[in-house]
């Protein structure tokens, strides 16, 4: 028995599949033109006029001579592909997915050429991914849910080339709605992170429909709390405890770090807010002589650091820190880092948009644990009613 070498077998299989696909496509087009002449051209003397050949790339291989029927008046157009289209849309989609996955336009171009023998310049790849820009504006202006139990705010920097290369801020907003679904609500690129920049971001969220917010979670950027309260005066503020611990850590002597941080941890892992404040009093008495500025800083900020104790127990691990949005931003930094600097703001927006929509698709059907508990939902509903009145369903 003769064994066919693997490469020859694969070529034979590919040719068989491609031939079968060609036969089916040509059959569909023959039926199309038959129906076209019968239903759309019954009163004219139009008729078939043979066919013309064209190459057509598919995900199963290239059809070198696809026979496309034509009519005498040149009015027929198959619905299988657009005029002058030489490939299925799958290749463009694949290019966008590769770009989203971290490959540069140059790397994508080389990969396409090595796989299909088709030369794509980095500029062509950029033009294909440019179609994403049409979606960004729609996505950025889409209506938001009215209610959000938590809104996280966090920024990162990206290097952009304008007249010179400089780092510019990306404002990223994540929210958990009343169903417990976490998603990226928006991102805004440009300038340097500031409270005024965040104020404009928050105004945009409010304008797009996110009017009833229970809690805002963010770091201690000067002026950010005031900007948040200006737009959402009925919402609470939770300053990120992890950020606060990180800021305190370098200021503690090496010999005291472990004991100091262990004592501090007992404050934000207590069973409730009253116990946490009592523990902090003991912590303050123990450490204020050695670290007066650090202890005072915690004391001043304690009300907004312990806000999470006012919320249902099962949700506290998700709201006392901005870790969820920081993990997202870490992925963005990793994706942007190999590029050194981007040629324009649109290039940054494309990458961030693709990552954000990918994140939202991943989490769209998964409620955050603890937010769907019946007691939690009842507690949140009570908070919404007390602060904002009627529910969306009653309006």
UniProtKB/TrEMBL annotation:
Region (Disordered), start-end ranges: 39-60
Top-rank lineage group of the source organism: Bacteria
Stretches of the chain forming a coiled coil according to its record: none
Keyword DNA-binding: yes
InterPro entries, A to Z: Transposase_mutator (IPR001207)
UniProt entry keywords in alphabetical sequence: DNA recombination, DNA-binding, Transposable element, Transposition
Record carries keyword DNA-binding: yes
Family: Belongs to the transposase mutator family.
Functional note: Required for the transposition of the insertion element.
The protein's name in its UniProt record: Mutator family transposase
Originating species: Paenibacillus silvae
